[in-house]
Amino acid sequence: MPRGDGTGPPNGGGRGRMGGNRPGAGPTGKCVCPNCGETISHQRGVPCYQVSCPKCGTKMVRG
To answer: CA–CA separation, 39 vs 29, rounded Å?
Structure first.
């Protein structure tokens, strides 16, 4: 409630905690190479930006 007037965001809407493709998006998902498009499964505890693409060696991004 921004001004205490009861017009805040509704509960239960949105993607929820740790959802989406942002950093810290949870333990599941894919890492995608921005250069060649190769995808690999995300490894829990290892950020995608620290993983090199197995095909071309470019650092991966969360996808």
So the answer is: 10
Q: Which two tokens stand for residue 49?
A: 């930006």
Tell me the residue type at 10. P
Closest CA to 48 of 33, 18, 37, 56: 33
Tens digits of residue pLDDT in 5-63: 767 666 655 444 545 555 556 677 999 999 999 999 999 999 999 999 999 999 999 98
Does the pTM of the predicted model rise above 0.70? no
Q: Where are the domains of the chain?
A: 28-63
**Number of neighbouring beta carbons within 10 Å of residue 8:** 10
Residue 61 has which token pair? Answer: 């991004």
Residue pointed to by tokens 């995300």: 42
Decide if 48 contacts 62 (C-beta within 8 A).
yes
